[in-house]
């Protein structure tokens, strides 16, 4: 983009227009840079499993037929990396869809207590681990059912992935907001990494996450959904003690009031 040359003063209409154009260029440039970064990060993340698949298929072609151990190792690696790629592309698609849907998000009165309990139960079965939900009553928020379930899924699954103990979820009222706490007694997040965990593709420990199949996209998806709901997501963590994610969502008492 080419900038217009604008002198300091006096400001006539043409110069004001020039300044406006320059501001527009700055915005376009920063959006362009963000998109460029995103594409380059996404390509990099997709290339890694592809490289593993490529090298293991080469190995299979050369040795596989004669060596049962290599055959087994190669098939397992190709299988794991294909699943990683599948999950990654699924999450990238979700991220793109969330961006598009931002404008139409807040349309339903959601029983947040019910969907939290439902999601907790599903994941508790999947991981064969206790996920308990504590609440005094049913609370409602205004939002998008599928997107909120996705956020709950991400936070509960992370709690289960990064700890070995049961997970606790508390739902309570905090002024005009419904506050949800996701408490795990897991490995925790180092203080210096906390500011980055909502960034796309960020993982505290690349090798460890690779074992758990993480893409580093979950929390950035969760944050983009919560931002679109005009809510807040916070984190507090101590290494080797555990992590608590806190969600704030505006309470919805009467849907007719809210969508006026
Ligand atoms: P991933 O798919 O890698 O889990 P996320 O965006 O969901 O991606 O999380 C980013 C990183 O934040 C994870 O790789 C992990 O290092 C860290 N993290 C997220 N949740 C927790 C948690 N409950 N306990 C410890 N670390 C966590």
From TrEMBL:
This is histidine kinase. One of its GO terms (molecular function) is phosphoprotein phosphatase activity. Its main location: membrane. Residues 41-253 form the Histidine kinase domain. GO terms for biological process: cellular response to phosphate starvation. The keyword Metal-binding does not apply. It is a multi-pass membrane protein. It comes from Sutcliffiella cohnii. Residues 1-33 form the HAMP domain. Its EC number is 2.7.13.3. The keyword RNA-binding does not apply. It catalyses: ATP + protein L-histidine = ADP + protein N-phospho-L-histidine. Keywords: ATP-binding, Cell membrane, Kinase, Membrane, Nucleotide-binding, Phosphoprotein, Transferase, Transmembrane, Transmembrane helix, Two-component regulatory system. It is found in: Cell membrane. One of its GO terms (cellular component) is plasma membrane.
């Amino acid at each position: 983009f080419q900038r217009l040359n604008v002198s300091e003063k006096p400001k006539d209409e043409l110069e004001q227009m020039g300044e406006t154009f320059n501001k527009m260029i700055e915005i376009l440039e920063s959006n362009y840079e963000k998109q460029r970064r995103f594409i380059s990060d996404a390509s990099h993340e997709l290339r890694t499993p592809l490289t593993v698949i490529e090298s293991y298929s080469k190995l299979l072609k050369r040795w596989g037929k004669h060596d049962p151990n290599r055959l087994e190792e190669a098939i397992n690696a190709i299988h794991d990396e294909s699943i990683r790629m599948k999950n990654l592309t699924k999450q990238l698609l979700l991220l793109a869809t969330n961006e598009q849907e931002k404008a139409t998000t807040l349309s339903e009165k959601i029983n947040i207590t019910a969907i939290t309990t439902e999601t907790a139960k599903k994941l508790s079965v999947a991981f064969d681990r206790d996920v308990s939900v504590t609440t005094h009553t049913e609370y409602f928020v205004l939002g998008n059912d599928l997107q909120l379930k996705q956020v709950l899924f991400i936070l509960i699954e992370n709690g289960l992935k990064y700890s070995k103990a049961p997970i606790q979820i508390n739902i309570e009222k905090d002024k005009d907001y419904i506050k949800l706490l996701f408490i795990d007694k897991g490995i925790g997040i180092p203080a210096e990494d906390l500011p980055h965990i909502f960034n796309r593709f960020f993982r505290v420990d690349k090798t460890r996450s690779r074992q758990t199949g993480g893409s580093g996209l979950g929390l950035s998806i969760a944050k983009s959904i919560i931002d679109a709901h005009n809510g807040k997501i916070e984190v507090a963590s101590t290494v080797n003690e555990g992590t608590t994610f806190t969600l704030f969502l505006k309470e919805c008492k009467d849907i007719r009031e809210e969508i006026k």
